[in-house]
Amino acid sequence: MDDDLEKIETTLLLEGIFRRYGYDFRKYSYASIRRRIWHRIHLEGLPNVSCLQEKVLHDPEVFKRLLGDLVIPVTEMYRDPEMFLSFRRDIVPHLRKLPFVRIWHAGCSTGEEVHSLAILLEEEGLLDQSRIYATDINENALEIAKDGIIPIDRMKQYTKNYQAAGGGRSFSDYYDSDNGGVRIKPHLRRNIVFARHNLVTDSSFNEFHVILCRNVMIYFNNQLRDQVHRLFYESLAHEGILIVGAKESISFTPMSDRYETFNDRNRIFRKMR
Ligand SMILES: C[S@@+](CC[C@H](N)C(=O)[O-])C[C@H]1O[C@@H](n2cnc3c(N)ncnc32)[C@H](O)[C@@H]1O
Question: Is the CB of 72 under 6 A from ligand 1?
């Protein structure tokens, strides 16, 4: 009974957020959303979801704090290095045949994966004929991404990831020291467009040869995941490549039979129909 009541309260909170602020978390996975909401309830010193709802609706600052909990910005450079290795070896040769390459990096967070890809394309001589559209719902994360700032304490791990992803140069050639942190060199960002885009409420905005959406749909329920897969299918060119996260799959989505598996281990699929 208490569980039922909490579900009602959560539904009302998410409905309120959508109506008041336009952010739609109504079809995110309940278990994950519930954890995040309780995290915020404890931090605000509140007794239950309804009290959080009251605060969120009346105080945009409380909403901002909750929003920070609901969007999970965790990312890293060359996350799953083997996927980037496969991109370099197996996908780049196909991209070379195109006069211009459009890539959509959906749910790019603070941009670490986007910068990883830009470095890879630069090394393969493809950056000038490519444009990476990097989007996220989280404006704070996008600001960090636009500045190309990376926490310095991560660079040792990222250098290892870069090498495991097939990078053969000195990784430090790609960034400058900046105020105790590091900043990706501006020339590597010349063909990246960062923009706010909500996968739940916004539509497609171009036709792409590659779409990467990794570790984003794991927070969605099945209905929303299927909706976003339809959006990606409609946004991909014929024989376009879709890359999802290491623990994700396109099986059991309505679009699964429209793709062939390009590289199962690295969750790379190619649109065939
Ligand atoms: C865990 S991060 C993954 C970042 C990166 N793709 C990676 O795998 O390292 C999930 C990202 O998805 C974004 N996100 C969540 N819901 C979204 C939505 N509806 N539309 C666009 N981005 C969303 C979050 O803001 C967050 O930056």
Answer: yes
